[in-house]
Amino acid sequence: MFDLGESGAKIAVSVLSTLLATCIVSTFSWLILKTRFNKKFRQALQHLRMAEALQKERQYSQAKDEVVKTVSLLSDDQRSSLLSQAYMRLGDISMSLREWDEAIQSYIVCREITAVGVRMNVSLRRAPPCVMRALGEDIGV
Predict the structure, then answer these.
(1) What is the pLDDT of residues 68-114, one digit of tens each?
(2) What is the CATH class of 39-139?
């Protein structure tokens, strides 16, 4: 087709490699911004893990504070599975604190974000009857 010569071929290879590198960097930048690797997600995940550890140690008030931080970090991403996990944990902690109304609201929000019915039903097996009755219509228990 075209006879570019040796220097022309070097220039073409240089241009193509620059374009390829730009595409790769752009793709990874987009992935970092739009996926689980962004800073807010990492911070939210850290708070949720801390809440889980505090909950296991029965430090429910501090665990609840950590979950609230998680929810505030993820509030702009309403379909996040991590956000649904945060609301599930908030419901569990609220039940441990015997804050039944807040537990109910947390479970309802969790269900609205994504279907986690199996985990929710397992979690609710230890719920008092008043919570089960209140949630019965909302989650199909």
Answers:
(1) 998 888 876 655 788 888 888 999 999 989 998 999 898 888 888 76
(2) mainly alpha
**Residue 88, token pair as written in the block:** 């599930």
Instruction: List, as one string, the DSSP characters of 38-62.
Output: SHHHHHHHHHHHHHHHHHHTT-HHH
- State how far the Cα of 136 lies from the Cα of 141, in Å rounded to an integer: 5
Instruction: Report yes or no: 70 and 48 within 8 Å, Cβ to Cβ.
Output: yes
Rounded Cα distance, 58 and 41, in Å: 25
Quick check: 107 and 85 in contact, CB under 8 A? no
Distances (CA, A) of 80 to 2, 17, 120: 52, 37, 17
C-alpha pair distances (Å), 21 with each of 15, 28, 106, 115: 10, 11, 45, 40
